[in-house]
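Sample entry (248 residues):
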Amino acid sequence: MHPALNIGILAHVDAGKTSLTERLLFHTGAIARLGSVDGGDTQTDSGAIERRRGITIRTAVASFTVGDLRVNLIDTPGHSDFIAEVERALGVLDGAVLVVSAVEGVQPQTRVLMKTLARLRLPTLIFINKVDRTGARPLEVLADVRRLLAPGAVLMEPFDGLDTLADHDDDLLKRLVYGEPIPPRRLREALREQVAAGLVQPVFTGSAVTGQGVPELLEGLKLLPLAPTGRSRLSGTVFAIERGPAGD
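Predicted structure, serialized as tokens:
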């Protein structure tokens, strides 16, 4: 049995969250055809209102695999009117991907979502989307992310997080001060530990429409910690109920 990871995708409305979900499913081979929000044929926006208006109004789940890791992807509504739907999903997550538009930047709902993720201590990746759009300003948005959302945000491509990691790791700090080499494996180990502890948030940039940055984001999912396993009594949490066209 593959290890499983429950990941939520969260964003302010129109940041491209559902398009990113669709791209992840397509890139990993979970779906054979790439749908679009404008076309009303994405996997996770299946309701008539969602397809007509191009917005997510209820939580939806889709799954794919990355190597030997099974990912259950939970696409949540972006509009603030449906925040209760988002909050129900947060209780079953192992981690989250927060999507920010490179054009519109950090929005009020983005700040609410990040505060909630921090309060729940959910490990979080950040994806700055729409870098292919006219008016995109990914570096400015990254600066705003650090100022308004997550001081521990570190850009992954190219990696700029060594100083941030060293702030929380005496061994890395010593190596940095004395100019000693830091093996890539040691750096990734520190990154995984600090992501799990909520000290840093890896940032990826790209476009859900073109697929730019998506392979890097998929690799980044492996930084998120798996839920602990043990011999506890099996239990579950119902966070959403889906019905077919006939109401079954």
